[in-house]
């Protein structure tokens, strides 16, 4: 139960071909697919920094994120079926998002997903959303969040913290 007394929806529509599906511990096949993403050194570099190692498991990460906020699979319609292409967590102070397949990077999927979660946060009555840290070298992620109105609120050793004030 990520937010007290607020049920998490099973599905959030992003577009006709993109949706968010609630993460569940029994999503074993989806976690196997996700583990492949998190074994890519380039993806891990953007997510966890230059010294990070590829993951050997994603289960504990997803369990942690599910306790922190609303954890979702990002799914895209492919050949008539929705399949996971990433994950995202809606939290007040962080909005971690990953698109696994590199061919999905820079295509606007992440922007659409974050925009959907901004609307969800407004509906929940949040006064702001934060992003804990984006590394200085993660230019795509910085551009995406800034294009949605997030502003740098603090410099960190490795990057910046962001915040978006919401109108409720």
Q: How would you portray this structure in words?
A:
The chain is of the alpha+beta class and 168 residues long. The protein has a single domain, classed as Gcn5-related N-acetyltransferase (GNAT) (Aminopeptidase), CATH 3.40.630.30. The chain is built from five helices and eight strands. It has helices spanning 28-37, 41-48, 59-68, 109-123, 139-147, and strands spanning 11-15, 18-22, 70-78, 81-90, 97-99, 128-135, 151-155, 159-165. The strands form two sheets. It has a five-stranded antiparallel sheet with strand order 1-2-3-4-5, with helices on both faces. The protein has a three-stranded antiparallel sheet with strand order 6-8-7, covered by helices on one side. The longest helix is centred in the C-terminal third of the chain and has 15 residues, at 109-123. The chain is globular and about 40 Å long. It starts with 10 loop residues before the first strand and ends with a strand. The mean pLDDT is 95.
Summarize the structure.
The chain has 168 residues and is of the alpha+beta class.
